[in-house]
Amino acid sequence: MRLTLVLALLLAGCPGDEGGDSAPAEGVAAQPVGQSTLLEDSWMYYVAQDPNRLGPFEQGKGGEVWLDFFHNDLMASWTGFDALCTPSDKPLPPRAADGFACVGLARTHLELSEFFSTVAAIDRVAQRQFFKHRNDNPEDVLPSVHQRYFEGIALLHSGEAEAGSALLRSYAASEGAHATLAALATKIADGLNSDPLVARAWGAAPAAAPADAKLGELPRSDDVAPYFDRLEFISAVARDDVDGALGLARTLDNRKADYREELSGGGSLLPPSIHHHDTGYLVARARLHAQLALRAVPAGDGTEVLRVQSRRLLGREPGDPGPAPSVADGLGLVLFGDAPNPADLHDAQLRGDRADSVLARLGGEFTDLGGDPGPQLADLDRFVNGSNVVTVAFGGLLKDAGPSGASLNGDMGLAERFRGRLLVERSRQYQEIFDVRLTGEDGKDLASSGVAAKSLLEMALDKNPSPPNPRLKRARISYRNDPPVLAALARAHLDTRHAYDANEFVRPLTEVFTELIATREALASLDSAWNPARKGSVR
User: What average pLDDT is seen over the chain?
Assistant: First the structure.
């Protein structure tokens, strides 16, 4: 039984769980009821039965790229799959001949889209909270001449069109307004309900702007040149001009702010500055990857679930995911992912915003996993114990699946990956059912359910990652720490008003994703506002 991909995984030392405290406790008794009917349909069990079933995923150079995808090196898997993918309308089984390259490419872009969507939310909230703190506590933060423009933009991205437009109009009429920003503020405020490009880029319009849509002539100056470059990118994405957006993205300098404002009144020899930016850049990044996912799988039986997810991320009518393929035919849809079976992907799309498909089907057999979470933290303990029980039971099932079951489970973290899915789904349940999100005001359930959601995500974290290269290790990315979950952890820390801790996840990710530099700066500014340095402090 020789399989290059499996051997590569074993030799690469895949496990990142070197003594991490997120593993289930030893000696937890397995619950016998229901484990076969509910877990033997997973891709983990299917591969543990016969590792040769991974054969199609090592065709040509495809095995190297799927290995990148396994390690959550999404930028490498994007490049690799893109070189191998020729989009077609093939159904799933014939795609085995090319190693499911287009399916892998679509999945990579969907991961990146989800990641940038979460980062955009972090960025928007961090800016709003910083501006709110300055408004409420003007003595803590130096005044900004141009705040109203960027605060208005942040409100538009929050869906608060009336308040955001009012701030933009006020800024455009103010003394000292930057000519470019004032002209753009007026154009955006006037065009939210009439200009399709503005409505798509800064408003709630789901449809793409016309191919010839433009922002028009705006006063140009060197100090807003980086913003002009990003505006061209944002506009291309709003028009669904994928090739144009890709070309522009290659030229963008993510280390430069949209506008750098020197602040006065600090009494310092070197006047402090603030780096302003428009969250619309990150929103456009998320949309571009959803568009690229759609392009990778334009049609084909069995791949509709990927197109449904893409359309949902674009804010459009998702459509019908169609029938779910078997795990044998649909292995490419779930391999190295946390969804056990293609049917779970389909159920997640059918359930819409309720991303708890695996818990929904497990809850009937494992009572500690069933039902919605309650407001008491004791409910969290019961659920964590239930997830431990299922993980141990699943590990035993994998061990008995075939001669390589135990080694594959240990080296690829199959049961732990499944447990991570349970913890993340429960965390999302808390976020969907209770008021835990920080936006304009604190979520009223922040101290209870907000803490519970954050705790569950922390339990899912691989605390001792061992990725294949130092770059990923510094970013805390590993085979279990995918970028979307790291971003979700940052958001959960921000939701509980811990901007510094949120940045402990965002800051390392900037080494892989330079687009996050602006978000790193926004979180640092917010942390300085919330926790001003005191005399003698080291921080």
Answer: 90
* Identity of the amino acid at 239: R
Q: Which pLDDT score, from 0 to 100, does residue 376 have? A: 79
What pLDDT shows up at residue 37? 58
Angle between helices 499-509 and 517-530 (to 10 degrees): 160
Q: Which of 416, 425, 421 lies closest to 22 in space, CA to CA?
A: 416
Cα diameter, the chain: 75
Dist CA 417 CA 179 (whole Å): 52
Rounded to whole angstroms, how far apart are CA atoms 155 and 413? 42
Residue 532 clears pLDDT 90, i.e. is over it: no
Q: Classify burial at 267, counting beta carbons within 10 Å of its beta carbon; exposed 0-12, middle 13-18, buried 19 or more.
A: exposed
How far apart (Å, rounded) are the C-alpha atoms in residues 194 and 497?
37
User: Residue 1: its pLDDT value, please?
Assistant: 32
Rounded to an integer, the average pLDDT of 67-81 is: 97
DSSP 332: H
d(CA 163, CA 170): 11
Q: Alpha carbon 319 to chain centroid distance?
A: 22
Contact 291, 240 (CB under 8 A): yes
Identify which of 306, 312, 307, 313 has the alpha carbon closest to the alpha carbon of residue 288: 313
Task: In whole angstroms, give the CA distance from residue 296 to residue 105.
Answer: 6
C-alpha distance from residue 539 to each of 84, 263, 441, 534 (Å): 47, 22, 26, 9
Q: What is the pLDDT of residues 243-294, one digit of tens each?
A: 999 999 999 999 999 999 998 865 554 558 899 999 999 999 999 999 999 9
| Tokens matching residue 265 | 């009144």
Q: What is the rounded distance in angstroms from the CA atom of residue 401 to the CA atom of residue 154?
A: 52
| Angle at the Cα of 375 from the Cα atoms of 370 and 381, rounded to 5 degrees | 60
Which of 442, 438, 435, 395 is closest to 415 using CA atoms? 395
pLDDT at 61: 82
CB 321 within 8 Å of CB 346:
yes
- Cα 254 off chain centre by: 19
Structure tokens at 156: 């538009």
Q: What is the C-alpha to C-alpha distance for residues 257 and 487, in angstroms, rounded to an integer?
A: 21
